[in-house]
């Protein structure tokens, strides 16, 4: 077997592994978020729900970072040339690629969500402080998720069309985007009114989180069956 073929096999194997890790992380993270929201709606203790959300957030961040790795190490005709180009990259800077921008926006969104999740453990916050420390990061994270989904849809459509019903990748991104919309609905409903100290709509917030999280879990399960793309040059020409 030639060195080029061996490099291509290693690159493909790494892509499949990264895809599996990201898919599993989103599946577990989405499931944990759904469980946390269900318990919150059932009246469970806030610390219990916050802990479940925090663990789920770790999986979301893992999935987000692995998605960046998957894009950074995606097989390409350029990267398959030579031994030096066979190294695993832990980061990349490719702002001209929509796929990279989408993955980075998603990863940063999970990190912003982490601020929200950690701050939710702080007790005795005033309504203003809760909106600043908990609600604001939640809104920013949701916005980044929506931006990520939009960029991914544009990238899959090649900048020409969004509808690709026969493309599993399109369905994965589409289901995730629905989940991001539901997360945003939940975030808006979680705003704490300064005059009363109560959230706008607790029920909508919980159900929005639950259904949105299930979308990410379902998309993660779908991603388990997705085959990573081949060399980038061939993909771009399709």
What does this entry look like structurally?
The chain has one domain. Residues 80-84 and 230-238 have low confidence and may be disordered. The protein is elongated. It contains seven helices and no strands. With 238 residues, the chain is mostly helical. It has helices at 3-41, 46-72, 98-119, 127-156, 168-189, 202-223, 232-237. The longest helix is centred in the first third of the chain and has 39 residues, at 3-41.
Please tell me how large the radius of gyration is: 19 Å
Structural class: mainly alpha
Helix content: over 70%
**What sequence of helices (H) and strands (E) makes up the elements?**
HHHHHHH
Taken from the alpha-carbon principal axes, the silhouette is elongated
Mean pLDDT across all amino acids: 87
Tally of separate helices: 7
**Number of structural units classed as domains:** 1
Strand content: under 5%
Number of beta strands: 0
Largest sheet: none
What is the terminal-to-terminal distance?
28 Å
Low-confidence residue ranges: 80-84, 230-238
